Amino acid sequence: MERFIIRSMKYHVVCVAGTFDGIHAGHEALLSKAFEVGKRVLIGLTSDGYVKKYKDVSIHGYGTRLIGLNRWLRQRGYADRAIVIPIDDPFEPAVSDPALDALVVSKDSKNNGEELNRQRVMRGLNELYLIVVPMLSAKDHKPISDTRIRMGEIDHAGNLVMPEALRYDLARPLGRVLSGVTRTGPGPVREVVTVGDLTTKAFLDAGITPRLMIVDNHVNRRVYTRLQPIITKRKFDRVHVVSGPGFISREAREAIREVFSREHDAPTPIVVEVEGEEDLLALPVIEYAPLGWSVYYGQPKTPNRAGKESVSGIVEVIVTELKRKEARDYLKQFI
């Protein structure tokens, strides 16, 4: 009973094992927990022979994975407390090492840990404390895994990555391309949303204040400062999110949905400032904006599947049910 009561005590030697083919967020949670509870950590890194025998996937060689793991250990200050050994068996050396006190496992490998303990008892050794680390979820609420990263669905942090094939599809404007912005009559006929710094600046210069402006303070990946004085002077409401490049964060998508859900209660213009890149956020804007609103975003010259460059300018999209469906169809490919 004592071992279940003294929960805060650090174990002398903790074991954790894995392929660690590129340290992703799930690996970090597993390794960090091992160093949190263990004075020393024995890390079993699967050998090339193990990978060939038990893994039916393309994985980097042992040497490459060892370099990456050691780099991570040094960066976190764990190197002096770690012992990294190659393993050729799913249960060794943990099943026969009497010096071990605990085993850190992910939720989906808990059964293996329980089987390992059964084998230790049969050998007359003590059971190891099983410390189960929950599986981390990517932005789509599905688990982060090596397989999903290799398939290009997510990055190492669990962000949803845009499929390569979709880059060509999104090079096609979602609406008509305008050569510029001019104000006609007393004001815009529809409520306006702008995505992009230059597009937003063009509307403000034309005397049109969009209800929602999404910017990242960059143009062609260079810092762009000409919007900030205007935003500050006019005291627009601000929302900060992280998203992109190459993915749409759940945080950004939910922030956009929230803006439109309270639109009638908060008619003050809102600026969503993106840390990362805002280019893809026209899609969730079209998904959540009220019907009849106008969405404008910048269209750079981008090669299409035939190698020809698309027309550049400001794209105008009038939100209709058909356009919403088109945006959602694209978004599904991220998720």
Low-confidence stretches: 1-8, 184-188
Q: Strand portion, in percent?
A: 15-25%
Counted up, domains total: 2
General shape: elongated
Taking all Cα atoms into account, the compactness measure Rg is: 26 Å
How far apart are the termini? 46 Å
Spatial strand arrangement across the major sheet: 6-14-13-7-8-12-11
Total DSSP E strands? 14
State the helical fraction: 25-40%
Number of helices: 12
Order of helices and strands: HEHEHHEEHEHHEEHEEEHEHEHEEH
Mean pLDDT: 84
Structural class: alpha/beta
Largest sheet: 7 strands, mixed
Question: Layout of SSEs?
Answer:
Elements: H1 2-5, E1 11-18, H2 25-37, E2 38-46, H3 48-54, H4 62-76, E3 82-87, E4 102-106, H5 110-122, E5 129-133, H6 146-150, H7 164-170, E6 176-178, E7 192-195, H8 197-205, E8 212-215, E9 218-219, E10 222-223, H9 228-234, E11 237-243, H10 250-261, E12 270-276, H11 282-288, E13 294-299, E14 313-318, H12 321-334
Parallel strand pairs: 1-2, 1-4, 2-3, 4-5, 7-8, 7-13, 8-12, 11-12
Antiparallel strand pairs: 6-14, 9-10, 13-14
Helix pairs in contact: 11-12
